[in-house]
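does this look right to u?? zinc ion version
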Amino acid sequence: MSKPTPEVYERGKGMDAHNEVMRSIRSRKQKQYDPHEPTRVWIDEDNTPDGVYQSLTIILNTGGCRWARAGGCTMCGYVAESVEGGSVSHDALMDQIDACLAHERENADEASGLVKIYTSGSFLDEREASAETRRAIAETFADRERIVVESLPDFVDREKLADFTDRGLETDVAVGLETATDRVRHDCVNKYFDFEEFVAASEEADAAGAGVKAYLLMKPPFLSEREALEDMKASVRKCAEHAHTVSMNPCNVQRYTMVDELYFRGGYRPPWLWSVAEVLCDTADVDAIVVSDPVGHGSDRGPHNCGDCDDRVQRAIKDFDLRQDPTVFEQVSCDCEGAWEAVLEEETSYALPLTR
Ligand code: SF4
Ligand SMILES: [Zn+2]
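got this back:
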């Protein structure tokens, strides 16, 4: 059987220019990673349809996303962390899982009820994690309550998900939809699929008795603060019809990405934390859990306000994640709200950014 290459995968998607730039930026990355070590692992708390759980989050190093090899998304630096050669053996992946279990034993008093497996790609793509690996990992975590596995919509398949649901795990697929607006997803994020494919994946997950957690990206490049804000409000509402949880995350500037190139030349500013708060407040009535986990808050390369209030607003966002109560935002205010409102009024997508 012929093997697809990134070039074949890319062909006909109409994104050749973005992909060419992304390939050239990524090729500057030199560092290599050990295939026996996970990219990252940490313990946290997560809000789920069954309540708040201690969570074990694992970023497996599988060799990276197929789409990123073709060029990939404008803000995504994850492929730069992947193993050279693009594939990791079953044994090495299981070593990574063992390292994560050891981390959990050292850092938590009890086993986490929720396990989240990301790969900076698609865990359900068998070029990243084979059926053997998928089943072995399902078996390893069969005694937990819930599991989340990350995947692009193309690879969501009821039989693959049955490996988890058949073991009694409440299972969710985490899909990086980024926005419900196809034009923004294609032209600003350079992600190839349509909203309809996300809907089809959520129906496929549903057929396996699994759910969907949609990931949205606030403020990809080329959108003004106001456009980004409105895009997220509309996207959260649209997603909530197909996903029980929406994780709306502000863009941060990762190395070896188009966003980084723009940022370096003064052409990109991550969103204000006030914008994140505004979307969470505005959409608090939707029939889904809506959360946000701003990474790098308060720094120039992450979502930020003025510097004085960033920690307070971040705390309110984390509080909202667990309680889903929009009144948490009534308790934070700062003089910089006036500057943020002026940016919303005045910033245009052809003259970005208005402030640093
Ligand atoms: S955001 Fe996801 S689909 Fe896009 S390049 Fe990164 S890992 Fe691949
Ligand atoms: Zn402030």
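The pocket of iron/sulfur cluster (ligand 1) is lined by residues 65, 67-68, 72-73, 76, 78, 120-121, 152, 176, 191 (CB under 6 Å). idk if thats expected tbh
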